[in-house]
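In the present case, backbone shapes were mapped to integers, as reproduced here:
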Amino acid sequence: MSTILKTLHRTALSNPERIALQGAHEGLSYGELDQAMAEAAHDLNALDIRVLGLLADNGLPWALADLSALAANIPLVPLPLFFSPQQLLHVMGDAGLDALLTDQPQQVEALLQIADIRFHRVGKLCGLHLVRLQGVGIKKLPQGTAKITYTSGTTGDPKGVCLSLAQMETVAASLRDASQAQVTDRHICLTPLSTLLENLGGLYTPLLAGACTCLLPLRQVGLNGASGLDVASMLLALHECEASSAILAPQMLQALVAAGEGGRSISHRLRFVAVGGAPVSPRLLERAQQQGIPVFEGYGLSECASVVALNTPGSSRPGSVGRPLPHVSVSFSDDGEILVSGSAFLGYLGQESPSQPWPTGDLGYLDNEGFLHLTGRRKSQFITSFGRNVAPEWVEREITMHPAIAQVAVFGEARAFNVAVIVMRAGFSHLHVNAAVQMANQTLPDYARVASWVLATEPFTPSNRQLTANGRLKREAISAAYAEALASLYQEEIDVVFWGIRKKLWVDA
């Protein structure tokens, strides 16, 4: 039986009145959650569901549906709300969903009608509408699959990462120990539960500790879509939930730090804030510490069942992503790619078993004290025309330190200088962006500096396929979208150089 469910049941027997899940308007005690989960699992089994999809906002129903699927031993497929209609349809067919729990049945049914997929609404379960899908082909899943989390990767359609219950629970237990989770904790979910990190770290880990998870709608905690952030709402949610822990993306941490530096009050109860998903500047971590934010950078990926390494209260080194957690071991290929053993997934849906150890695609090294450092992505690293290797994540990390910069993508393969596509935050101007680039350039060696830039016409998001579900840039898509603008930057620079040479020749003559 599941370790999480056994622990939940034991807590329900010993402390039935303790709050396990706190929603926007009501809470569920451990006793109530244990009973509701058992009843919902019974109903799910009676429906003879092979693979269940879950498309809903953060809240009590999402958590109850997830735990009930575990209890019913039914593979679950969490669907991000920010997936495009095309991505949602791909996942439904790819995973062979025959049922879907959702809080937006009209939108789902309209999508199914357009795709000519037969369906019928069964009723309500776990506080969500249950829609049965017909005509979606049965797919063979790797044995032991408990969850299929979809990662959009850098190109193509989202890929289904198949995970076993044991793998997910092992990571959740490691996170409980590393974060020193306590019975008195109140974890607030500030990122979507459909992302594996929040699912494991924000739901499973607190349950293993006998703690409470605060589950508010994403808009109520300040998250709007894949990239919109209302900092005032996030601060209010942290205070009202009396949150002691949270998981943040780097941009969310940057906004929180800026709010603190601007005089806004940040919850004094916070004791553990995990940040990851993209490179984090050591300077940002230092600023966070100065604001009293107990932030700890980590590293992981879906194919390794989420977290691989994490800084902790008793073992932290800013600039690193922490020491590898006890359930994994890390090695390196000849060219510095990080290889992970001990938590590999069961395989991509429809593909052969994964190789062991798993090649992460990330470059890095272990220092003398065992802390893991990331230096870039293997596929995104480029070589300038002067033969210099540049990891664009390094440059982007420095540029996004400025409050004017929301996102940035740096390019320079086989070129004499680097250029960037920049997403500017509202309320700032071109002058602010230029200042941000110049400030970053002062901290970088000449070969890594950005010489010219263009403003993006819209943020990089999963919906426009310029960002993966876990927050990584889709560089090929961004480069293609701004190909003409980037080419003009190089042409302008060539023209400047050319006319400068001509002018010098004329003067010398």
Observations:
- The two ends are 87 Å apart (CA to CA).
- The chain has two domains: 3-307, 382-497.
- The domain at 382-497 is CATH 3.30.300.30 (GMP Synthetase; Chain A, domain 3).
- Residues 324 and 419 are 34 Å apart (CA to CA).
